[in-house]
Amino acid sequence: MSLNFILKRLIIFIFIIAIASSVNFFIPKVVSDVDPVSIRMMEIANQGGVYDESMQAVAAEYFKQFGLDQPLWKQYLRHLVDTFTFDLGVSFTYYPSSVLGMIMDALPWTFGLLIVSTLFSFLIGGVLGALLGWPYAPRSMRFTVPPLFIFSAIPYYMLGLLLIYIFAYIFKIFPTGGGYTIGEVFNFGFSRMINIMYHAILPGISIVIAELGIRSLVTRGMILSLYGEDYIKLAEAKGLPANRVFIWYGLRNTLLPQFTILALHLGHVASGALLVEIIFGYPGLGALLRDSVTAFDYPVIYGIVFVLILGIAMATLVLDFIYPKIDPRISYED
Amino acid sequence: MSKQILEGKNLIKIFTSGLFVKKSSTLAVNNISLNIDEDKPIIRAIAGESGSGKTTLARMLLGLIKPTSGEIKFEGNDIFNLNQNQKLDFRRRVQTIFQDPFGVFNPFYKIDRVLNMPLKKFKVTSNKTETQDRIEFALNSVGLRPDETLGRFPHELSGGQRQRIMVARALSLEPKVIIADEPVSMVDASLRATILESIYNFKNNQKISVLYITHDLTTAHQLCDDIMILYKGNMVEAGPIDSVVRKPAHVYTKHLVGSIPFPDPKMKWKKYNESEKLNLDKPSVGWRK
Amino acid sequence: MAKVLNVNNLKVYFHTPLGPVKAVDGISFDLSPKERLGIVGESGSGKSTMAYALMRLIKKPGKIESGDIVVGDENILDLDENEMRARRFSKISLIPQGSMNSLNPVMRIEEQLIDTIKAHDEYKSSISKTEKQEIVGKLLKSVGLDPGLGKRFPHELSGGMKQRVTIAMGISLNPIVIIADEPTSALDVVVQRQVMDTLESAQERIGAGLILVGHDMGLMAQFVDRIAVMYAGKIVELAPVETIFNKPLHPYTKMLINSLPKLDSHGVFNGIPGLPAQLLNLKEGCSFCLRIGRENKNEIPWVKVSKSHYIRECDVCADYN
Known about the structure:
The complex is a heterotrimer of chains A (334), B (289) and C (321). Chain A has helices at 3-31, 36-46, 53-65, 72-84, 99-133, 145-153, 156-170, 190-227, 230-237, 242-280, 285-294, 298-326. With 334 residues, chain A is an all-alpha fold. Chain A has two domains: 3-84, no CATH class; 102-295, MetI-like fold. In chain A, α10 packs antiparallel against α12. Chain A is globular, with a radius of gyration of 25 Å. The N and C termini of chain A lie close together (11 Å). Chain B starts with a strand and ends in a 31-residue tail after the last helix. Chain B has 289 residues and is an alpha/beta fold. Chain B has ten helices and ten strands. The radius of gyration of chain B is 20 Å and the shape is globular. In chain B, the strands form two sheets. Chain B has a six-stranded mixed sheet with strand order 6-7-8-3-9-10, with helices on both faces. A four-stranded antiparallel sheet of chain B has the order 2-1-4-5, with helices on one face. Chain B has a single domain, classed as P-loop containing nucleotide triphosphate hydrolases (Rossmann fold, 3-Layer(aba) Sandwich). In chain B, α3 (112-121) packs parallel to α6 (159-172), α4 packs across α6 (159-172) and α6 runs parallel beside α7. Chain B has helices at 54-61, 84-93, 112-121, 128-141, 146-149, 159-172, 192-206, 217-223, 241-246, 251-258; strands at 4-17, 24-37, 43-47, 69-74, 77-78, 94-97, 177-181, 209-214, 226-231, 234-240. Chain C has ten helices and twelve strands. Chain C has a domain at 33-52 and 80-273: Rossmann fold (3-Layer(aba) Sandwich), CATH 3.40.50.300. With 321 residues, chain C is α/β, with parallel strands linked by helices. In chain C, α5 (159-171) packs parallel to α6 (189-206). Chain C is globular. In chain C, β11 (302-306) and β12 form a beta hairpin. Chain C has an eight-stranded mixed sheet with strand order 6-7-8-3-9-10-12-11, sandwiched between helices. At the B-C interface, α7, α8, α9 and α10 of B face α6, α7, α8 and α9 of C.
């Protein structure tokens, strides 16, 4: 992979971030004429504050704080600089907590849940799908297809609700929600980890199962189209054992399209995961998003959106760099 | 001076790789010129092994790639500077037949589409009956029965049949030049004769010139009037087919002729010698009489 | 000298919903060590099916209906799947057609060469890294390739090189029979000669019998000792190569030879009329007669004309031409 390509790709990445940030800046300006500070002031006033000249002074101070008294282009530049120094502003509701800080608190929960469940669905779905498509797999595997179809049609959150109902309500095996048992005192370490994982199982499962359906059906399709290829025929002709042909000649060749789908899928999964979090009261970005939307806490909303875009852009960047390792036919030379 | 239909002057093509920093360059075509006269239709072979530049040359003449330097003119005009009408005319009058009889067909459409569309686009015919007549005539000229071919999908026909449809398609447009890139190499040896025969008749019946790109000197000899031998992008020898193939002057031509699998057990190849490959870079002998 | 291969009345039918496709319909021939037999036929004549049948790689809806395939001293049709797997490439190997796609694109050349060897019982014990380099290096050198190519991926090699890699694979376990299925169909004449030369040396070195399947009579003339001409699933003529070219008896053979361009046939095109036989619902009797508009519904006998010359003698079409 040439230096050329790496540089180009990084530039594109930075460009994407800049655009995302710009959209974040301009949409609120376009959508409403009134600035957020005044709105906030109104809200406070409505809740029983007194509205007089002193409030004006407070408002003016806030204006200065938020840089709203500057000309538009200066505000824009300020915004871009802030973005690249990771200053996402401060929350309205929890003033003056920094948006970044709030997001960083919630992020590890989402991250953990997302990564682990995506990984699982990737592995299980990939292998399951491959087996379904392979002509020499046991016939009984066919029976897994209808349930998979059903799963792929159910939205994440519905599955989540279903799981809560069955496993937390009726059977009381798993907790109904939360990241960890509230009120308990832990020492840091193992028991806390176990507790967290215990709480993560149901939300994790609902994401995995919902993903599983599509992933395995797609992999199945890939293997089916792969099966007639000449190199599979030669592999069999060579007298290679069946599982070697399946894994190294069949499965291995589906990796590249799988990774591509993963990259495209990330956005979808991210949004789905957020909904799952809300259902399970999981203290990740989903909960934060719900709170900030109901409270009209714009800086936090924009911050979350921005972080999501950043995350997906980074994931695709990494995947782009990994591609040549997975499929040696890919090279970024001309 | 008779009018030139297609003319290529001092064509050079260099392929480079690497974006900001030039990493490596390949000289695919090195100073090749050729022309085709309007009044003297000719079937000319452009022969060489793979990597010799023959396909690149064909692509340039078809206007699919731009030469690094040199000119290509159709009826006197630079093909990369044509107006809309001239371009349409160029595309119609300079036709092509590709090597792969399967890849060129969209498997979802019946083969009729590949025959109908060009006639419509180039406005060759103005109504359905005319189109139908023209197609049937073209199919008959290549030895296919319209009632057995029309209405079928590509996978329902054999490779030889598909290639003949491609020839019929080219013919139906009344071109002046057909550039055929290895048209029979993916067809069974025993079935090549019919396809080649229809191409052979183009010259005498329809006054169409043909550029036959190939690595197979035997079919070239069967089909063509003269031949250009390409090696590593250079034209090393050219001239009347009989002289060049039966009495090759350049050492590379001799090498190429020596690789022909003669269908005669008494004329076997000489044992292959790696060192043969080392001394082939001799200067061109040019056009022979 | 014992034959390395004996095929007796082999029949391979495909049972499709539209009817049976008799791809191989009663084929018999033998092969001696170091001998080269050419099987010539048009597309759809059943020759590739036959090549795959010899490796017992026919898949549903195809089935080896009857007959014997004796490789060395055992009938491979009597073996179970595991025993057959062990024989593949170690007793009988295949060099496939058009190596465009026959090599796994995501695996290095050396891996693909080694896994053939590792898959066979005699070499079950793991091979060390140095041993691997040695074996791969030797194999690549034996087909005229640079040992360093082992580390490359298939797409980095040219067509001719890929074909030579498959030749190396085919001889790596010293089989007694090698089947080459149109090995040079995608290559230009110059590379073709080089590859055939490599194949020849490789075969001679290990003393195997070789079957060359193809449609190019010119190539056959250069390379093989005997030719079997296939039409519509049957062999119509089997004879030494000189006899086939100088004194062919079957009208189909005659037409095939006539259609070949020689260097004195400028402007002369002797095509073969009609289309190759449709193997689906093949009618009884002489298939070639049907091609030229005649009919003979009787079973056509397999006749020995002289010491090593056999034909399917049909009096109705014998005089064609």
